[in-house]
Design brief:
Elements (H helix, E strand, L loop, with lengths): L7 H11 L4 H14 L7 H10 L4 H10 L3 H13 L8 E4 L2 E4 L5 H11 L1
Antiparallel strand pairs: 1-2
Helix pairs in contact: 1-2, 1-3, 2-3, 3-4
């Protein structure tokens, strides 16, 4: 999807879902919506629909995101990722001192990285 959407609301939605034991299902729904269905995960109505499909209250979900209930949580987690872990791009995969940043261009390179981690 071009332009790429802002993902702050999706992360806030994940916080909401996680507090209600639906974080994993919400994560998978957002992943599917963006990477497979090419939906705008920066759009509150799209996220609300996904939340409802995960068994969450759409009204409570929307209210929490509009109120900014999880804004500071997401900012704090972003700072932690950046400052403590040195993450400046996504995806970034860390395993001990080994890191893989950005998309891997081919399976051979990914396999080599995984073998080095082992």
């Amino acid at each position: 999807m071009i332009p790429r959407p802002y993902t702050d609301l999706a992360f806030q939605g994940w916080c909401f879902a996680g507090e209600r034991d639906r974080g994993e299902s919400f994560y998978k729904a957002v992943f599917q919506a963006y990477f497979v269905d090419e939906r705008d995960i920066g759009d509150l109505s799209v996220l609300t629909e996904l939340a409802e499909n995960c068994g969450l209250s759409g009204q409570d979900f929307r209210a929490a995101l509009v109120a900014g209930t999880y804004t500071e949580t997401v900012r704090r987690q972003s700072r932690l990722s950046r400052d403590l872990l040195g993450i400046h791009m996504v995806p970034t995969i860390l395993s001990g001192k080994k890191r893989l940043e950005g998309f891997v261009p081919n399976l051979i390179e990914l396999k080599a990285w995984l073998d080095a981690v082992r």
